[in-house]
Design brief:
This protein is α/β, with parallel strands linked by helices and 308 residues long. It has an 8-stranded parallel β-barrel with strand order 1-2-3-4-5-6-7-8, surrounded by 7 helices. Helix 10 links the parallel strand 6 and strand 7. The relative contact order is 0.16.
Length: 308
C-alpha cells in the first residue's frame, strides 16, 4: 500500500523541498542516479560496458511547462549523442526518452513532442544506436504509440515501452510483436485507477507473463524490464520454448538495483542492459524507484536514521 502514497508524494512540491533538503538524500540518490552531467556519466558508461553490460541512457526531468524547456531537454539528449559518438559503442548504449520532457503535455503537445524527438532519433541513428520511447501514465499512451509509429517509418529500430498492469497492454503487445519491433515490457510505475489497471501484485505478475509470452512468440525483439527473479526465470523458459537465441531478446534492469544479477546474466551470455539515468531534476524519477520496490524505501529510511 506504500506505493500509491509515495507516488502522491512525487507530485508534492512540499515533499520535494523536504526530501531534497535532507542531508542524506544525495548519497541515496547516487545509488540510482550516478551523475548530473554528461561528463560525470561518461566514466559510468565506460565502466559498465567494460564489464560486458549494455546501457539505455535517460536524462531525468519531466516537469516541463514551456516549449523552451522542451527544447532544452531535446538539446540535452543531442549533447548525449555527441558524447556517445566519441565512445563508438553502437547499440551497446542507446537512449530512453519520456515524451513529457519533449513537451507532450503542452498545448499542441503531440506535434511539439514529435518535432523535438525526431532530431534525437535521427542523431542516434547516425552514430549507430537508437531510442526507446518510455511509457508514462495511461492518458499519454495513444500519443506515444502514434509518435512511435511515425518514427518507425524512417527509423524502424525505434523502440517503445508497454506496461503489464494496464488492461490494454495485451492488445498493444499483439500489435507490436512484429518483425523489426523493439518492445520493453515493464510492470508499470504510475498510479493508475482501477478502471484501467490491475491493482494487485499477483494480477500484475500474471499479466506480465501473458504479455511476455505474446512478445516471445512474436517476430519482434523483446526487452524484459524486471528485477523479479521469478519473472527472469520465466522469461528464460519462454525464450527457450520460442526457440530464441540469446541475442534475440535482452534483460533490462535499473542502475543500482541487483547489480550482481546484471553481471551474472551477462556472464551467462545474455544481453543485459542497464537503465542509467542522470541529470539534476531527479526527484520524480527517484520517488518512482522508491514506489516500485519497498526495499528501496527501507534503504532510504535506514540511511536517514544512520547517517551520522
Amino acid at each position: 500500500m506504500l506505493g500509491p502514497v509515495i507516488l502522491a508524494a512525487s507530485r508534492s512540491e512540499q515533499m520535494r523541498r523536504l526530501i531534497s533538503a535532507a542531508p542524506v538524500t544525495k548519497q541515496v540518490v547516487d545509488r540510482f542516479i550516478p551523475g548530473e552531467t554528461v561528463d560525470e556519466i561518461v566514466p559510468i558508461v565506460q565502466d559498465l560496458t567494460a564489464k560486458g553490460l549494455e546501457l539505455t541512457m535517460d536524462v531525468v526531468g519531466e516537469d516541463i511547462t514551456t516549449p523552451e524547456q522542451a527544447a532544452a531537454a531535446r538539446d540535452a539528449y543531442l549533447l548525449l549523442v555527441d558524447r556517445l559518438a566519441e565512445l563508438e559503442l553502437g547499440t551497446r548504449a542507446e537512449m530512453s526518452i519520456k515524451l513529457s520532457m519533449f513537451g507532450q503535455a503542452l498545448e499542441g503537445g503531440h506535434e511539439l513532442a514529435l518535432a523535438n524527438v525526431r532530431p534525437v532519433v535521427e542523431a542516434a541513428a547516425a552514430i549507430g544506436t537508437t531510442v526507446t520511447l518510455d511509457a508514462e501514465d495511461h492518458t499519454t499512451l495513444d500519443s506515444m504509440f502514434a509518435i512511435h509509429e511515425e518514427l518507425r517509418k524512417d527509423f524502424p529500430q525505434t523502440g517503445c515501452v508497454i506496461q503489464a498492469y494496464l488492461f490494454r497492454t495485451e492488445s498493444d503487445a499483439r500489435r507490436l510483436a512484429e518483425a523489426g519491433s523493439r518492445v520493453r515490457l515493464v510492470k508499470g510505475a504510475y498510479k493508475e485507477p482501477a478502471e484501467v489497471a490491475y491493482q494487485q501484485k499477483h494480477e500484475i505478475d500474471k499479466a506480465y507473463v501473458r504479455i511476455l509470452r505474446i512478445l516471445m512468440e512474436g517476430s519482434g525483439y523483446p526487452m524484459i524490464g524486471s528485477h523479479d527473479p521469478r519473472l527472469i526465470s520465466i522469461a528464460q523458459e519462454l525464450a527457450r520454448r520460442a526457440g530464441r537465441k540469446l541475442d534475440e531478446y535482452e534483460f533490462q534492469m535499473l542502475y543500482g538495483i541487483r547489480s550482481d544479477e546484471h553481471l551474472r546474466l551477462a556472464a551467462e551470455g545474455h544481453r543485459m542492459r542497464v537503465y542509467t539515468a542522470y541529470g539534476t531534476d531527479w526527484y520524480g524519477y527517484f520517488m518512482r524507484r522508491l514506489a516500485e520496490k519497498p526495499a528501496n524505501l527501507v534503504f532510504f529510511a535506514r540511511s536517514m536514521i544512520t547517517r551520522d
